[in-house]
Structures are given as structure tokens and as C-alpha cells.
Here is the input.
Amino acid sequence: MGGLSRNAATRRFGVSIASAVRWVTRYKTTGRISPPPSGGDRRSGRIEAQRDYLLGLIRRTPDITLLEIQERLIQNCGQRFSVSVLWRFFDRHGVTFKNVWPAPSARGFVELGG
Here is the structure.
């Protein structure tokens, strides 16, 4: 900083004292002056911690639904995740689900026409 104090440097460059303190701390700990990466996913760590359990569950029970997976996570792991979080997890890991609708029963079948 050319011999300037942090306060003098903040006035000269028009930044807050807090920013200057963070930048100096970052330089002292990492040796870098570039800012840390911004953006990206910061919340998937919680679901990724259940990765082995979830992928094993899919291997053992390939026809399980997302709602059933959600219930099993609550019962067995004490973790609650929304269906959309589960969907994004499986999408990241290349696991797909088919929409399986119950087939109509033979008793309820009515033939039309004729």
C-alpha cells in the first residue's frame, strides 16, 4: 500500500474500512489479492452429505418415488428436504425417474362404442 495506513488507503481509493481490512486479511492468509469466487451453489452440501444413502436407496429400490425418498430421509436420517432439492440432487447425479401412473383396473373398464 505504499506506506499508507489502512484508514488513509481507504480514503484514497474510496472504499470502506471493512473492505480494506477484509482484503488485507485475505492477502495475509492466502497470499492473493483477487476476490474469492462469487455465485455458485452454496446450499447443496447438506443433501450431498446424504449422497451414499440416497444412491444406495435408489439401487435397492429403483421404483421408489421422490415422496417416498423424502419420507425415508426424515425417518432414517432425521433430515427434511423438499422434493425439488431431491430432484436437483438426482439430476446432478444422472438419476432419472419415470412417471408411473396406476393402470386402470379391469373392473373399472368400460367399453365404449359398438
Notes: DSSP finds six helices and no strands in the chain. The CA atoms of residues 42 and 56 lie 24 Å apart. Helices lie at 6-13, 17-30, 45-48, 51-60, 66-77, 83-92. The chain has a mean pLDDT of 84.
